[in-house]
Design goal:
about 425 residues; alpha/beta; five-stranded parallel beta sheet; 11 helices; 17 strands
Length: about 425
């Protein structure tokens, strides 16, 4: 009885109750027609329940997303294909796609009859305000009899993933980095210097080693010029993210960690487009030993899409990875939170003499509740170590902060 009740709809239970009352009334008062009508009302839901429970239909579900990787706020179109692999035509059924909450409301649609061996496709769109790897599916299905007296619910297994990448803001700076070659140099207009062994000169750029300054050429042109070997390695940049929960404030999309991820994505893509070989140093790349590898913009965005705050115990491994990369010289960008002056001092020590270090210190308190400290003392610590550092508040745009940072002088103020 309990199994039958779970299959019946509200209308089916109403039929059962009404039919039972009519049967009893017909028997008590001797009205045979009333009894027959009551038996009919009781029988219809039972027959419907049996048909719904015994009718077997097999379908194959496939999902295709276009595109497979989207940015925050961008629409993705999902195509659901239903293939009837049974020998009978499927009944009309109601389908509901189960989605991660970040993708919005669950789409619901009525699917018509599908003949054996045929395929029916349905499209829907999703949009996420949160980056990450989100799940599509499984699909919930409800089959109902034509009278609406009984239904059967089932879950069709099978899921797909949709990768939502962090937003990337276009950045600019007063001194644009150019496509680089050389750990200290970059690809520029190379001028041969006869009499020197495979050496050329070019203009000084941020991040160049001061030991490579070519003083005769500097005196002749009036601009700082540096020596560059004829076959140098590619110009390098290191982008470091602070993943400590104690160094960040706020929750969800408005947290300082999300701001840091967006900033790291924007800076890394900007530097890649400018010709830098970019190393991303974060908890995820350190764990997978990818911090030492140069990464393409797509690879960087894929890593940042799933980046999460990590326990403070892992900060030592991240700093060691950053130290190993920074010791070879190159451009440094650190996005850190203000918690622990000793950690900030270790970050400050990453910059090598003659190279450029840019630091974005998140004012975590402006983002929400946090254990973090005031940002300004940490900014001062980095500036004293030769970094260009600024404090970042919640309402500030990544492009604006980058423009201010790249326009600042070493040790200057905003």
């Amino acid at each position: 009885m309990r199994s039958l009740r779970s299959v019946l709809t509200t209308r089916g239970r109403a039929f059962m109750g009404s039919g039972t009352v009519l049967v009893l009334a017909g028997v008590i008062f001797g009205f045979r027609d009333l009894t027959r009508f009551g038996v009919l009302l009781v029988t219809l839901p039972v027959i419907s329940a049996v048909l719904v429970r015994t009718r077997k239909t097999r379908m194959r579900i496939e999902r295709h997303t276009h595109p497979e990787r989207i940015s925050v706020g961008q629409d993705a179109h999902v195509t659901l294909s239903f293939e009837n692999v049974s020998s009978a035509t499927t009944p009309i059924f109601l389908a509901e796609e189960r989605l991660d909450y970040a993708l919005g409301d669950r789409p619901r649609f009525v699917v018509g009859r599908i003949p054996s061996g045929r395929v029916r496709a349905i499209d829907y769109a999703v949009r996420s305000h949160l980056r990450g790897r989100h799940h599509l599916g499984p699909l919930g299905v409800q089959v109902q009899d034509p009278f609406g007296l009984a239904n059967r619910n089932a879950v069709l297994e099978g899921t797909a993933d949709l990768v939502v990448l962090p937003a990337v803001h276009p950045l600019s700076s007063n001194r644009q980095p150019s496509s680089g070659v050389g750990s200290e140099g970059e690809q520029a207009q190379l001028i041969s210097l006869h009499g020197e062994d495979d050496v050329t000169i070019r203009e000084y750029r941020d991040g160049d080693d001061l030991r490579r300054i070519h003083w005769p050429a500097t005196a002749r042109t009036g601009d700082l010029m540096v020596r560059q070997e004829d076959r140098p390695a590619q110009r390098r940049a290191v982008v470091l993210i602070d993943p400590r929960p104690s160094a960040h404030g706020g929750t969800g999309a408005s947290s300082s960690f999300e701001w840091a991820v967006t900033a790291a994505a924007s800076v890394a893509v900007h530097l890649c487009d400018s010709g830098y070989a970019v190393h991303l140093v974060c908890a995820e790349t350190v764990e997978t030993a990818r911090a030492a590898e140069t990464m393409t913009p797509d690879e960087i965005l894929d890593v940042l899409a799933v980046a999460t705050p990590r326990d403070d115990a892992g900060d030592d491994e991240i700093l060691r990875a950053g130290q190993a990369l920074a010791s070879a010289g190159g451009f440094l960008v650190a996005i850190v939170g203000p918690f622990g002056r000793d950690i900030t001092s270790r970050v400050a020590s990453l910059r090598q003499p003659g190279t450029t270090g840019l630091a974005l210190v998140l004012d975590a308190r402006s983002f929400g509740e946090t254990q973090a400290e005031e940002a300004e003392p940490h900014v001062d610590t980095l500036r004293l170590a030769g970094w260009r550092a600024v404090a970042v508040r919640r309402d500030e745009d990544v492009a604006y902060v980058w423009a201010v940072l790249t326009a600042a002088t070493v040790g200057g103020s905003r």
